[in-house]
Amino acid sequence: MRATLPLIALLLVSGCVAPPKAPPAPRPVAVPPAPTSVALPPPSNDWRDWPALPGSWTYAPSTRAATFGVAGQPIAARIGCKAGQVVLTLLGALPGALTVRTSSTTRAIALAASPAGEIQARLAATDPLLDAIAFSRGRFVLEQAARRWVLPAYAEVGRVIEDCR
Fold first, then answer.
1. Distance CA 67, CA 58 (A)
2. Is residue 58 pLDDT above 90, yes or no?
3. Residue 126: partners with Cβ closer than 8 Å, 6 or more residues away
4. What pLDDT score was predicted for residue 59?
5. Does the keyword Signal apply (predicted)?
6. Would 5 be classed as within a structural domain?
7. Residue 115: inside a domain, yes or no?
8. At 149, is the pLDDT very low, low, confident or very high (cuts 50, 70, 90)?
9. Containing domain of residue 153, as a range?
10. Structure confidence by residue, pLDDT tens digits, 107-145
11. CATH number of the domain that 150 lies in?
12. Among 104, 106, 113, 115, which Cα is nearest to 142's?
Protein backbone atom coordinates (compact mmCIF):
# COMPACT_ATOMS: atom_id res chain seq x y z
CA MET A 1 0.00 0.00 0.00
CA ARG A 2 2.89 2.25 0.63
CA ALA A 3 3.95 1.84 -2.97
CA THR A 4 0.53 2.69 -4.26
CA LEU A 5 0.31 5.86 -2.20
CA PRO A 6 2.91 7.73 -4.29
CA LEU A 7 1.21 6.49 -7.45
CA ILE A 8 -2.15 7.77 -6.27
CA ALA A 9 -0.58 11.11 -5.32
CA LEU A 10 1.04 11.29 -8.76
CA LEU A 11 -2.31 10.57 -10.44
CA LEU A 12 -4.04 13.21 -8.35
CA VAL A 13 -1.39 15.82 -9.14
CA SER A 14 -1.46 15.00 -12.85
CA GLY A 15 -5.22 15.51 -12.80
CA CYS A 16 -4.68 19.13 -11.66
CA VAL A 17 -2.93 20.12 -14.90
CA ALA A 18 -5.09 22.27 -17.15
CA PRO A 19 -5.92 20.86 -20.56
CA PRO A 20 -3.90 22.36 -23.43
CA LYS A 21 -5.26 25.62 -24.79
CA ALA A 22 -6.85 25.58 -28.20
CA PRO A 23 -4.87 27.45 -30.85
CA PRO A 24 -6.06 31.06 -31.25
CA ALA A 25 -8.64 31.67 -33.92
CA PRO A 26 -7.18 33.22 -37.06
CA ARG A 27 -7.43 36.97 -37.25
CA PRO A 28 -10.28 38.15 -39.39
CA VAL A 29 -9.06 39.63 -42.64
CA ALA A 30 -10.29 43.16 -43.10
CA VAL A 31 -12.22 43.32 -46.32
CA PRO A 32 -12.28 46.83 -47.72
CA PRO A 33 -15.80 48.08 -48.25
CA ALA A 34 -17.03 48.14 -51.78
CA PRO A 35 -16.42 51.56 -53.30
CA THR A 36 -19.49 53.67 -53.30
CA SER A 37 -19.99 56.48 -55.69
CA VAL A 38 -20.42 59.76 -53.93
CA ALA A 39 -22.57 62.16 -55.84
CA LEU A 40 -20.89 65.52 -56.18
CA PRO A 41 -23.04 68.48 -55.34
CA PRO A 42 -24.42 70.22 -58.39
CA PRO A 43 -22.56 73.33 -59.51
CA SER A 44 -23.64 76.34 -57.55
CA ASN A 45 -25.88 78.90 -59.16
CA ASP A 46 -24.24 81.56 -56.99
CA TRP A 47 -21.43 83.16 -58.99
CA ARG A 48 -19.48 83.84 -55.79
CA ASP A 49 -18.95 80.07 -55.45
CA TRP A 50 -17.69 79.53 -59.01
CA PRO A 51 -13.99 78.66 -59.27
CA ALA A 52 -11.77 81.53 -60.38
CA LEU A 53 -9.64 81.27 -63.47
CA PRO A 54 -6.05 80.29 -62.72
CA GLY A 55 -3.60 83.13 -62.95
CA SER A 56 -2.89 86.55 -61.54
CA TRP A 57 -3.12 90.21 -62.53
CA THR A 58 0.09 91.97 -63.59
CA TYR A 59 0.27 95.76 -63.86
CA ALA A 60 2.51 97.46 -66.44
CA PRO A 61 2.98 101.17 -65.62
CA SER A 62 4.44 101.95 -69.04
CA THR A 63 1.21 100.92 -70.81
CA ARG A 64 -1.20 101.76 -67.98
CA ALA A 65 -2.67 98.29 -68.36
CA ALA A 66 -3.11 95.15 -66.30
CA THR A 67 -3.17 91.65 -67.78
CA PHE A 68 -4.60 88.51 -66.26
CA GLY A 69 -3.27 85.05 -66.97
CA VAL A 70 -0.77 82.35 -66.19
CA ALA A 71 2.88 83.12 -66.91
CA GLY A 72 4.00 81.68 -70.23
CA GLN A 73 0.45 81.32 -71.58
CA PRO A 74 -1.77 83.69 -73.57
CA ILE A 75 -3.52 86.26 -71.39
CA ALA A 76 -7.16 85.66 -70.49
CA ALA A 77 -8.05 89.33 -69.95
CA ARG A 78 -6.54 92.78 -70.20
CA ILE A 79 -7.78 96.07 -68.81
CA GLY A 80 -6.13 99.25 -70.02
CA CYS A 81 -6.61 102.96 -70.55
CA LYS A 82 -6.85 104.61 -73.97
CA ALA A 83 -7.98 108.18 -74.58
CA GLY A 84 -9.93 108.52 -71.33
CA GLN A 85 -11.66 105.18 -71.72
CA VAL A 86 -11.09 101.93 -69.88
CA VAL A 87 -10.74 99.15 -72.44
CA LEU A 88 -11.48 95.57 -71.39
CA THR A 89 -10.15 92.88 -73.73
CA LEU A 90 -11.11 89.21 -73.34
CA LEU A 91 -9.51 86.20 -74.98
CA GLY A 92 -12.12 83.89 -76.46
CA ALA A 93 -14.99 86.35 -76.28
CA LEU A 94 -17.45 86.96 -79.08
CA PRO A 95 -18.90 90.30 -80.18
CA GLY A 96 -22.22 90.99 -78.49
CA ALA A 97 -23.48 91.37 -74.95
CA LEU A 98 -21.30 90.69 -71.92
CA THR A 99 -22.78 90.46 -68.43
CA VAL A 100 -20.61 91.94 -65.68
CA ARG A 101 -21.36 90.69 -62.15
CA THR A 102 -19.85 92.29 -59.07
CA SER A 103 -20.78 92.06 -55.40
CA SER A 104 -22.80 95.27 -55.75
CA THR A 105 -24.20 95.29 -59.29
CA THR A 106 -24.94 93.32 -62.44
CA ARG A 107 -24.95 95.00 -65.82
CA ALA A 108 -24.71 94.11 -69.50
CA ILE A 109 -22.17 95.89 -71.69
CA ALA A 110 -21.37 95.59 -75.39
CA LEU A 111 -18.33 93.84 -76.81
CA ALA A 112 -17.09 94.72 -80.27
CA ALA A 113 -14.12 93.86 -82.45
CA SER A 114 -11.28 96.37 -82.38
CA PRO A 115 -9.34 97.35 -85.51
CA ALA A 116 -6.65 94.90 -84.33
CA GLY A 117 -9.23 92.09 -84.25
CA GLU A 118 -9.49 91.86 -80.45
CA ILE A 119 -12.88 91.65 -78.76
CA GLN A 120 -13.20 94.63 -76.42
CA ALA A 121 -15.56 96.65 -74.28
CA ARG A 122 -14.95 100.37 -73.89
CA LEU A 123 -16.23 102.23 -70.84
CA ALA A 124 -15.90 105.88 -69.89
CA ALA A 125 -13.33 106.23 -67.12
CA THR A 126 -16.05 107.70 -64.88
CA ASP A 127 -18.48 104.79 -65.37
CA PRO A 128 -19.72 103.58 -61.93
CA LEU A 129 -19.43 99.97 -63.16
CA LEU A 130 -15.65 100.35 -62.99
CA ASP A 131 -15.86 101.25 -59.30
CA ALA A 132 -18.09 98.23 -58.73
CA ILE A 133 -15.47 96.01 -60.41
CA ALA A 134 -12.57 97.52 -58.45
CA PHE A 135 -14.36 97.24 -55.11
CA SER A 136 -16.10 93.90 -55.68
CA ARG A 137 -15.59 91.51 -52.78
CA GLY A 138 -12.88 89.16 -53.91
CA ARG A 139 -13.96 88.59 -57.51
CA PHE A 140 -16.06 89.71 -60.41
CA VAL A 141 -17.49 87.74 -63.32
CA LEU A 142 -17.62 88.52 -67.01
CA GLU A 143 -20.12 86.25 -68.68
CA GLN A 144 -21.31 85.44 -72.18
CA ALA A 145 -23.66 82.64 -73.20
CA ALA A 146 -20.80 80.28 -74.06
CA ARG A 147 -18.01 81.53 -71.81
CA ARG A 148 -17.38 82.78 -68.30
CA TRP A 149 -14.40 84.62 -66.80
CA VAL A 150 -14.26 84.57 -62.99
CA LEU A 151 -11.51 87.05 -62.16
CA PRO A 152 -10.09 88.21 -58.83
CA ALA A 153 -10.65 91.88 -57.98
CA TYR A 154 -7.00 92.65 -57.27
CA ALA A 155 -5.50 96.12 -56.79
CA GLU A 156 -4.09 96.14 -60.34
CA VAL A 157 -7.62 96.57 -61.73
CA GLY A 158 -8.27 99.59 -59.51
CA ARG A 159 -4.86 101.03 -60.41
CA VAL A 160 -5.69 101.02 -64.13
CA ILE A 161 -9.06 102.66 -63.48
CA GLU A 162 -7.49 105.37 -61.30
CA ASP A 163 -4.70 105.99 -63.82
CA CYS A 164 -7.32 106.53 -66.50
CA ARG A 165 -9.26 109.17 -64.55
1. 5
2. yes
3. 165
4. 92
5. yes
6. no
7. yes
8. confident
9. 57-164
10. 999 988 887 778 889 999 999 999 999 888 888 988 888
11. 2.60.40
12. 106
